[in-house]
Amino acid sequence: MPQIANNAAAGVRSSAKLFLCGDVMLGRGIDQILASPGDPHLNERYVKSATTYVELAERVNGPIPRKVDEAYVWGDALAELDREAP
Question: Domain residues of the chain, as ranges?
Answer without folding.
Answer: 26-84
